[in-house]
């Protein structure tokens, strides 16, 4: 039994009024993180996906009915232990503990310009363990297994939710610790143990993901993006961005702009792009 990551897809853009269709072969699944609002077709009732939701499935269509481009990112992986219950598209809402842990596990795949030989197998191992700990309810919404391992300190959930809702602010570890009346060292260690990423690293991952989206889908200047994301200066933002992706924000925008809206979404599988008139 195993999980094998076959491909990684960052900053894929679904333009306004268009739809994309995924159809991956047996034993392979698409794991998609949503950064916006999309309509899912292929689910038994159809459902609206919101920012922060996670989708796992083999055959589904994502439709952008908003007036703005929506960013998604994800991986294609092979899962040797999947059961028939996983044949349908599975929606994991942003407040679910699975979504919180899954996004933390796969974050290093998107945060590094070059994936090291250590990152990929460790991510596969953690993702496999997480998937095995879950079961599927009748509503096709993933929830933790009936017998979770241990009890998560509610303050960690509070901090995680606060970061997700306020990541554009210049948050510090001390501020987050004061928020839940905790020692910052305890908070950092406990949070890292549960979510497999430190609170500040998770904060930066969210900021970098939003920076990627804005660099491709808006004409915001680098200075405006830096200010909106809570950095004290454009140079601070630029240095951190280059540390994450190996290139400057300007170079990233130029490279992604060559073919319009970033990388080819079709790499996920069979994709049909339809435009509404």
TrEMBL record:
It comes from Paenibacillus hemerocallicola. InterPro entries: Homeodomain-like_sf, HTH_AraC, HTH_AraC-typ_CS, Tscrpt_reg_AraC-type_HTH. One of its GO terms (molecular function) is DNA-binding transcription factor activity. The keyword Transcription regulation applies. Residues 157-255 form the HTH araC/xylS-type domain. This is Helix-turn-helix transcriptional regulator. Transmembrane segments: none annotated. It comes from the Bacteria. Coiled coil: none annotated. Pfam families: HTH_18 (PF12833).
């Amino acid at each position: 039994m195993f999980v094998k990551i076959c491909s990684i897809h960052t900053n894929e853009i679904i333009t306004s009024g268009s739809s994309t269709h995924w159809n991956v072969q047996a034993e392979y699944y698409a794991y998609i993180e949503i950064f916006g609002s999309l309509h899912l077709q292929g689910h038994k009732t159809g459902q609206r996906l919101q920012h922060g939701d996670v989708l796992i499935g083999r055959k589904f269509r994502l439709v952008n009915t908003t007036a703005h481009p929506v960013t998604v990112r994800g991986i294609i992986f092979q899962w040797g232990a999947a059961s028939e219950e996983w044949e349908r598209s599975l929606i994991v809402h942003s407040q679910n503990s699975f979504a919180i842990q899954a996004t933390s596990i796969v974050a290093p795949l998107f945060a590094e310009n070059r994936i090291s030989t250590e990152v990929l197998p460790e991510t596969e191992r953690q993702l496999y363990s997480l998937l095995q700990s879950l079961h599927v309810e009748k509503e096709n919404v993933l929830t933790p297994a009936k017998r979770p391992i241990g009890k998560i300190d509610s303050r960690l959930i509070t901090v995680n939710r606060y970061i997700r809702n306020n990541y554009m602010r210049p948050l510090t570890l001390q501020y987050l610790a004061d928020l839940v009346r905790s020692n910052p060292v305890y908070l950092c260690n406990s949070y890292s143990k549960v979510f497999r990423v430190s609170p500040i690293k998770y904060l930066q991952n969210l900021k970098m993901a939003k920076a990627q989206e804005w660099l491709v889908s808006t004409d915001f200047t680098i200075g405006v993006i830096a200010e909106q994301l809570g950095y004290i200066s454009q140079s601070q933002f630029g240095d951190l961005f280059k540390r994450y992706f190996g290139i400057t924000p300007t170079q990233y925008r130029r490279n992604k702009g060559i073919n319009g809206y970033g990388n080819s979404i079709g790499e996920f599988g069979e994709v049909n792009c339809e435009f509404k008139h």
